[in-house]
Write a structure and sequence with these properties.
The protein is built from 24 helices and 29 strands. The protein is an alpha/beta fold and 737 residues long. Strands 5, 6, 7, 8, 9, 10 and 24 form a 7-stranded mixed beta sheet that branches. α9 packs parallel to α17 and α11 crosses α14. The longest helix has 28 residues.
């Protein structure tokens, strides 16, 4: 303190620094890391770097030492008080609302004990001390809904009860040359931070006194995490089991990394569009060469993923939510029990959320092709670089030639992204079109954009015959092994053989449900090996105690947001006698290509196939002023025709029940379609008709006005000849009056 004063820093500033530094140490104490170095690092990371006026103080070694020691001494003192209180207050099983809470004590009794034994002079001070015990993780409310209060609330000691969690060993201490994670590579700073959060090393599974849980959740992807957090939030005792990475596909190999990659690809595309174009209508021209540092693009992706991983981390679910997290493979042993790492957990209810595994081609030779093998691993066999979405985001080198098999959402998004980042991409599919779930005219706009980006799109493939590596032709980009695909395609009314060479191949052929190793037969759960677990409209399986959500379910909704809301419905139904139905969920979808293609409800082709009568209202973005203002069609710069020069692509299509404004579906193709579609989703969920959307006032100019304009089109259909005649009569009457 004296040295801080010598630097003419106010004593109050130092005290503030010591206080916030103590708080910074909490995140480490809760992870069982009490070393002085760890506390020092936490203080610096959390407060000093972001607060310039503290930097001068903290650089002083004596001051730094004093702050760190205060954090450690405070913790030791509080732990001593907690252990004494554990021996002094009455700890026993207690009942509230017909539920038994094991080994707990009462807040009022604890306050009395604190005052009686001289740790506080009054109840107010006792409550403040109790809150510090909660803050440091020594005490918690039984369902973590309250801070420490001098009330008849139940609390438990956490001194020894939670024996599970992460060890002090970090993935950053692993020798990347000798150790590889099976699904995440390279083991750089970003990925080790990710793994420390979602797959901690030497994780200690729980050892509770009672292995009976209100809810056991198998799988920690989107559906599993929402199920576990939702149940724990209302007081249920929850176990969460994950054999690989918490966060599942969405965080690790799906939504998060793909959108980070697409953002970089779009930036590269925009810059490239203005490169060396000469005179163009925008007045913007960039001279020189566009250089894409692919390794840095992928590092940015990994940094973003590691940053977002906090929400899905093991420490959050154990320490903040009070959930027992188990690492390992789950297998049912009966209709109400599951085994993980030689521990048998019994449950009152269970949710299965194990997701799916990407598919390859059925005729792949394992001597040439094995999915998701790290091509840079010296221990790996020399194989064709065969990727799925599980491994493509691990790349650090850009393949010169990328072959993408599958023309669904994943295939189209990543084909466009890699093409814009400098690969030569060939996109291949069996059908005559891409994005077969969407209306043909909408998918056609995406196809035109892909081809405009010089993606080589090959449709109508009859069969994929074989994939093998070319021993005599190594790839020009290490560590890839050049391969070739042999396939057949009909040309001139006869089937002909073709070949396509590549540095890496991405399989985007959908998923099979992860059900094989669960032992579902023992649980009495019906399933299909390809389609997944069969559920009713309440998301219950053939075993009424077991529910399922997400990609493992036999349903068409294979989206993160679908798994999220399916999980919410499943929890209500499983724990609270709810009546939430899967069929009541209105689940939109979006393909994040450029342009984006978003749909909610049914498509035009679906309505036609089901013989449902409907009316159609379409507004092109070419008629939307904001879209026109932001269009830069440089390729047509020499044209004098305004429409061809600045004509944005895409449209909004709203489908309503025949002769009504009840919305049955909406399709949007264009910039920000994934944002705009939510207006239609809200209207459908809330029972708002298309006519009412027309009355919503938007700022001018915005793209969303195209949807409102569809409402205008509907309202005009109500202006019949008889209505017009009546309105003319009123106008004339006004003239007389």
């Amino acid at each position: 303190v004296q040295e801080a004063r010598d630097k003419r820093q106010e004593a109050t500033t130092f005290k503030m620094l010591a206080f916030v530094s103590s708080a910074a140490g909490l995140c480490l104490t809760r992870n069982n890391n009490y070393s002085a170095d760890a506390v020092c690092y936490s203080i610096k990371r959390t407060y000093i770097n972001s607060t310039p006026k503290f930097q001068g103080i903290y650089k002083n070694k004596s001051v730094k030492r004093a702050i760190v020691m205060e954090v450690l001494e405070t913790r030791q003192q509080l732990e001593s008080i907690a252990r004494a209180m554990q021996k002094g207050v009455e700890v026993k099983d207690r009942t509230y609302n017909l539920k038994i809470y094991r080994n707990c004590f009462v807040g009022t009794e604890a306050c009395q004990w604190i005052v009686k034994h001289g740790y506080a002079s009054n109840d107010r001070q006792a409550v403040e001390l109790g809150k510090r015990l909660v803050e440091f993780g020594f005490v918690s409310h039984v369902v973590r809904e309250h801070d420490f209060e001098n009330e008849n609330l139940f609390y438990v000691f956490q001194l020894d009860s939670r024996s599970h969690g992460s060890s002090k060993k970090s993935w950053q201490q692993v020798n990347a040359k000798s150790t590889q994670h099976p699904t995440v590579w390279p083991l750089d700073e970003s990925n080790t931070k990710l793994l420390d959060k979602v797959a901690p090393l030497e994780w200690q599974n729980p050892h509770p006194d009672d292995y009976l849980y209100d809810l056991v959740v198998i799988g920690a992807g989107a559906g599993g995490l929402v199920s576990a957090a939702g149940a724990a939030g209302v007081g249920a005792r929850v176990a969460l089991i994950e054999k690989n990475l918490l966060g599942g596909d969405c965080l690790n190999v799906g939504c998060v990394p793909s959108k980070a990659l697409l953002a970089s690809a779009k930036q590269a595309h925009i810059i490239h569009k203005y490169m060396n174009q000469g005179t163009n209508p925008s007045g913007i021209n960039i001279q020189g060469n566009l250089e894409i540092d692919f390794a840095q693009v992928m590092k940015r992706l990994r940094d973003i993923r590691a940053q977002i991983a906090d929400n899905d981390s093991a420490s959050r679910f154990t320490d903040k939510l009070g959930i027992d997290v188990y690492q390992g493979t789950a297998q049912f042993t009966s209709k109400n029990s599951v085994r993980v790492q030689n521990k048998e957990l019994r449950f009152i209810r269970c949710v299965i959320a194990t997701g799916g595994t990407p598919k390859g081609l059925p005729n792949m030779d394992p001597n040439h092709v094995q999915l998701d093998v790290n091509p840079a691993d010296p221990k790996a066999p020399s194989l064709v670089c065969a990727l799925t979405h599980k491994s493509i985001f691990n790349l650090t080198q850009r393949p010169n030639k990328l072959l993408v098999i599958g023309t669904g959402v994943v295939g189209c998004e990543l084909a466009q992204a890699f093409q814009r980042l400098g690969s030569q991409v060939t996109l291949m599919g069996r059908g005559s079109r891409i994005l077969k779930k969407e209306d043909d005219d909408a998918a056609q706009l995406v196809l035109e954009s892909l081809r405009h980006d010089n993606v080589n799109v090959v449709l109508g493939v009859n069969s994929f015959e074989s994939i093998h590596k070319l021993e005599s032709s190594p790839s020009s980009v290490a560590p890839f092994q050049q391969g070739v695909l042999k396939y057949t395609k009909t040309a001139s009314s006869s089937e002909e053989n073709y070949e396509e060479s590549f540095d890496a191949v991405l399989f985007a052929l959908g998923h099979t449900a992860n059900v094989k190793t669960l032992g579902l037969e023992m649980a009495g759960v019906d399933f299909d090996l390809k389609k997944g677990i069969k559920v009713n409209d309440m998301l219950a399986t053939s075993n009424a105690k077991i529910f399922a959500t997400g990609d493992v379910v036999d349903s068409p909704f294979k989206f993160t947001h679908a798994a999220d809301f399916m999980a919410r419905a499943a929890i209500r139904n499983a724990l609270f006698f709810g009546s939430e139905k899967l069929s009541d969920l209105n689940i939109p979808r979006c393909t994040f290509t450029d342009p984006e293609l978003a749909v909610t409800g049914m498509t035009k082709e679906e309505l036609i196939s089901k013989n449902i009568a409907f009316d159609e209202y379409v507004k092109n973005f070419a008629d939307n002023d904001r879209s026109i203002c932001e269009t830069q069609n440089i390729e047509d710069a020499t044209s004098s025709d305004r429409a061809s020069k600045y004509e944005p692509q895409g449209f909004v299509r709203v489908l309503t029940a025949k002769d009504t404004d009840t919305i049955l579906g909406c399709t949007i193709v264009g910039d920000n379609a994934g944002e705009l579609i939510n207006v239609a989703s809200l209207a459908m969920k809330s029972g708002i008709g298309l006519g009412s959307i027309a009355s919503v006032i938007h700022p001018y100019p915005v793209r969303a006005d195209a949807l409102r304009a569809c409402g205008d089109l509907y309202n005009r259909t109500k202006l019949t000849n008889q209505t017009r005649a009546a309105l003319r009569s009123i106008i004339k009457l006004r003239e007389i009056l």
